[in-house]
Design a protein that fits this description.
Protein name: Arylacetamide deacetylase like 3
Strand content: 15-25%
Shape: globular
Helix content: 40-55%
GO molecular function, one term: carboxylic ester hydrolase activity
Radius of gyration: 21 Å
Number of strands: 8
CATH superfamily of the largest domain: Alpha/Beta hydrolase fold, catalytic domain
Distance between the termini: 70 Å
Strand order of the largest sheet: 1-2-4-3-5-6-7-8
Keywords: Hydrolase
Organism: Macaca nemestrina
CATH architecture of the largest domain: 3-Layer(aba) Sandwich
CATH class of the largest domain: Alpha Beta
Number of domains: 2
InterPro entries: AB_hydrolase_3, AB_hydrolase_fold, Arylacetamide_deacetylase, GDXG_lipolytic_enzyme
Largest sheet: 8 strands, mixed
Number of helices: 15
Length: 407
């Protein structure tokens, strides 16, 4: 019996070693690490670990043990949280929605700015734990009350559930600002990646709510703002750059929006939408809206092919403004509050920020824009990762703090 157990253990070790070697070796053929990120070796190691988690997650999913997103979130949430003695952290719920409240420990009578933070992760990754360090430092350094929202995610909860959860939690918060010592004239919504997209959707939804305190500002950090065009210059340039490369985007994108991943090639050719749709939104999505200097790393315009009607029926959810807030009508976007946008050069979603920035500026919305020339998608989450910390993450946090203090 023990011989059989040893055989199984040896087979297990060989299989695990094989998976690890495959992931490591594939990195050198499929992943491009720009030297300009400052710490290319560190980024390669970080992405290698991340890809290993994705691979094991897919294996467990095939074996029906758990889904890939659940496995990665489980591993990401394992490290114990580090608590700052100057920040009071409280866990509670708005109805069924878990939230974390961060308050500066030093008690004062003065009301403080309030920040509602929505974490990123494509509806699959990220949690209140993965963004604890960001929210804690944001609270302390900006002397603000921060509310982090733990919205429901994949695999059980798809679009638009995360957005509805965030909207509900935000309304709860806005109705109880007095209880948290928050100045109703200085409430900010903030998010990274998908969370950045959620932040601006929340702003758009609340522009016509006179019964609630008006949102003072929105902060969008390498935000996901449109899902129509996945052949923008930044998507072409960064398709093989961590942490959001094309293969991972194609893994999460269909899951979140609940359509078949078999339409990947159709979407790449632009055949998932009819010509009239492309024509309607060209004024906001066209590459001519992106400064030429952002096309120098390589860009080839790809004219959309004739529409695949079957794909359009399934993928047309991308036209929902809750999925693509960048295409909301002018009468909504023009009412948005002062905005701070942070974009990263080596990010597939970079051009979402550039296109939204132009729309807001054209409509007269006060705008602050900061571009991280050495940044990549997800870099802010490395702010408390010790060895895997990238200086760019600290610079992004400093931008946020400076913006909030200036309100």
């Amino acid at each position: 019996m023990w011989v059989l157990a040893l055989i199984f253990l040896a087979a297990d070790c060989v299989f695990s070693l094989g998976v690890t070697l495959w992931v490591i070796c594939s990195q050198f053929f499929t992943v491009h690490i720009p030297a300009a990120v400052g710490h290319p070796v560190k980024l390669r190691v970080l992405h290698c670990i991340f890809q290993l988690l994705v691979t094991w997650g897919m294996i467990f999913e095939k074996l029906r043990i758990c889904s890939m997103p659940q496995f990665i979130r489980f591993v990401h949430d394992l490290p114990p949280l580090k608590y700052d003695p100057d920040v009071v952290v409280t866990d509670f719920r708005f109805g069924t929605i878990p939230v974390k409240l961060y308050q500066p420990k030093a008690s004062t009578c003065a009301l403080k700015p309030g920040i509602v933070y929505y974490h990123g992760g494509g509806g699959a990754l990220g949690s209140l734990k993965t963004h604890h360090g960001i929210c804690s430092r944001l609270c302390k350094e900006s002397d603000s009350v921060v509310l982090a929202v733990g919205y429901r995610q994949l695999p059980k909860h798809k679009f638009p559930v995360p957005i509805r959860d965030c909207l509900v939690a935000t309304i709860h918060f806005l109705k109880s600002l007095d209880a948290y010592g928050v100045d109703p004239a200085r409430v900010v919504v903030c998010g990274d990646s998908l969370g950045g997209g959620i932040a601006t959707v929340v702003c758009q939804k609340l522009v016509d709510r006179p019964d609630l305190p008006r949102i003072r500002a929105q902060i969008l950090i390498y935000a996901s703002l449109q899902a129509l065009d996945l052949q923008t210059p930044s998507f072409q340039q960064s398709r093989n750059i961590p942490l959001l490369n094309w293969s991972f985007a194609c893994c999460c994108f269909p899951r979140y929006l609940d359509f078949s991943s078999s339409w990947q090639e159709v979407i790449m050719k632009g055949a998932h939408l009819p010509a009239k749709v492309w024509e309607k939104y060209r004024k906001w999505l066209g590459p001519e809206n992106i400064p030429e200097r952002f096309k120098k790393r390589g860009y080839r315009p790809i004219p959309p092919e004739p529409v695949n009607e079957a794909a359009y029926l399934e993928v047309s959810v991308v036209l929902d403004v809750m999925c693509s807030p960048l295409i909301a009508e002018d009468d909504v976007v023009s009412q948005l509050p002062e905005t701070c946008i942070v974009s990263c050069e080596y990010d597939a979603l970079r051009d979402d920020s550039l296109l939204y920035k132009k729309r807001l500026e054209d409509l007269g919305v006060p705008m602050t824009w900061r571009h991280m020339k050495d940044g990549f998608h997800g870099v802010l989450t490395t702010i408390d990762m010790s060895f895997f910390h990238f200086p760019c993450s600290t610079r992004i946090l400093n931008v946020l703090v400076h913006f909030i203090k200036g309100l």
